[in-house]
Amino acid sequence: MHPIRNMSTSDPAIGKKRRRNLAFIYFFGAFGGILFGYDIGVMTGALPILQQRWNLQNSPVDLGLITSAVMLGAILGGAMAGRLADRYGRRRLILIASLVFIAGAAFSAIAPDNGVAYLVAARIILGWAVGAASALVPAYLSEMAPADVRGRLSGLNQVMIVTGMLLSYVADFFLDSLSATWSWRIMLGAAVVPAIILFLGTLELPESPRFLVSHGLIDEARQILTTIRPERWHLEDELQDIRRTVQNENEQERTKGHYKAFLQPHYRPLIVAGLGVAALQQFQGANAIFYYLPLIVQRLSGASTHSALMWPMLEGAILVLGSLFFLLLADNINRRTLLTVGGIIMAISFIAPALLHMLMPSLGGNTVVVFLSIYVALYSFTWAPLTWVIVGEIFPLSIRGSGTGLASSFNWIGSFLVGLLFPIMASAMSEYAVFAIFGAVCVFGVIFIRLWVPETRGRTLEEIEARPETT
Questions:
Q1: Which of 137, 174, 223, 395 would bridge with 403, disulfide CB 3.0–4.6 Å?
Q2: What is the count of structural domains for the chain?
Q3: Do 290 and 44 meet the contact criterion of CB atoms below 8 Å apart?
Q4: What share of the chain in percent tops pLDDT 90?
Q5: Cα→Cα distances 97→128, 199, 219, Å
C-alpha cells in the first residue's frame, strides 16, 4: 500500500464539488448500461407481437435471427470499439456509440411489415453500439475508480443494465395494450431517448487518466485524478505507477507488437480468464430467460401474451434488487467466492426442474418459473455484475481496450448463439432438456473459476498485471 499524501485543502466547497464531479462521472460513465439493458429486454415484449403479426409461429429460425441480430452486431462492435478506444479514447468512442444507437433504434422502429430481413439489418446496426458500450463502459469505470471501491463502482454498470431491462419490461407490459401496428414500433423506438441522454452526458465526461498517460498527456491526467480522488490520496504515487506501467508496456509493444502481447506467457492466464468468464456468462443461459420468458410461460402454462408479460417484470425487479445488493457485497467478499456460490446455485436452479419433470411429468409451468427466478436472483449479484468487473480490471493496460473489446465479443458470441439456438432447440426438445444443458454449463463455469480466474478484489490494476497468479 502506498503512503497517503495530503492532496487537499480544508475548504469544504472543494470537497462538495469533488463529490458532485464523482457522482456525475460515475453515473454517466455507467449510463451506457441503460442502452445495453433496454435492448436486451425490449424484445421480450415485442417478440410475441411480431410472432403473431408476422405469422412466425412456425419460423423458429426467423425468431432466433430477429432476437440475436443485436448480438451479431455487438460481436463486431465490441472488438472494433476496444481497439479504437486504445487509439482515440474511451470517451470519444462512447459518444460515437450513442449516435449509432440512435440511428439503429430509429431504423428498427420504422421496419416495414413482414420485414424480417430489414429488422435484422437494423438490429445489427443497433448491436454495434450495444457491443461498443459493453466493451467501453467497464474499461472506463475500472480506470476511473480507485482500487478499494472499484468493484462497487464498476458494479454501477450492472445496475444500469438491469435498470434498462426493467424499464423495457414495464414499457412492454403497458405498450402491449396498444394496437399491434404501433406497440412493437414504440417499444423499439423508445430506445432513442436514453441514447440521446447518454450522448449529452458523455459530452461533459473527462477522459480516462490511464488513456491520457498512455498518450503522454501527464498534466491532463493529473488534473483529472485531482478531481476524482478523495481529498487525502496518494495521487502522485498512483500517477507514477500508471506511468511506469505505460512505459514498460510501450517497450514490450514496440518489440513484440500489439496483438502479439496476447500471446505473451505472462499475460496468457489473465487473457484466458477474462475471455472465459465473458463467454461463460452467456452460455449459462441467462438471455434465454430474458428474451424468451413470455414464450416459455405460454408454452408451459398456456397463459395469454399479456399475462405472460408480467413475469419479465418480476424478473426485472429481482435483477435490480440483486444488482443493488451486489454493491454492498462487491468490495467485501472475494470475486471468486461469489462466482463459485452463484454458479452452484444457478446450476441447481436449471437442473432441478429437469429432474422434477422426469419424476412428475405434470409439473406446472409456474413451478419452473420459480426455479428460473432463483437462477435470476443468484445471477443478478454474482455472474451478471462480476463478469464486467473482472473484464474491466484483469487485462494489462497495453491491451486493455482490445482485451475488453475481445471479451465483449466473446460475450456477445455466446449471447448470439443462445438467442439464435434457444427457439430452435426448444422446438426439437423439451425446455427441461435445454435447461439441463445450461445447468451443465454452470457447473463447468464453477470449475473454470477455481482453475483459471485470479482474485482481484482490493488489488490495483498494476498489481493484478504484475502478479496475475490465481489465489
A1: 395
A2: 1
A3: yes
A4: 25
A5: 8, 9, 28
> In this structure, is residue 161 part of a structural domain?
yes
- Residue 471: inside a domain, yes or no? no
Summarize pLDDT for 433-451 with one digit per residue, the tens. 999 999 999 999 999 999 9
Residue 85 scores a pLDDT above 70: yes
Q: The cell 431491462 sits on which residue? A: 165
* pTM to 2 decimal places: 0.74
Instruction: Please state the length of the chain.
Output: 471
- Residue type at 12? P
Three-class SS state of 232: strand
Burial of 348 (0-12, 13-18, 19+ CB in 10 A): middle
Residue that the C-alpha cell 424478473 belongs to: 315
Q: The domain containing residue 186 runs over which residues?
A: 13-466
Mention every residue, 6+ apart, whose C-beta is less than 8 A from residue 275.
406, 407, 410
Grid cell 435447461 in the structure block, residue = 435
415 belongs to a structural domain: yes
The CA distance from 213 to 218, in Å, is 5
Nearest-angstrom CA–CA distance, 261 and 347: 35
Mean pLDDT taken over the chain = 82
| 161 or 54, greater pLDDT | 54
**Per the domain annotation, does 7 fall within a domain?**
no
DSSP lists the bridge partners of residue 6 as: 232
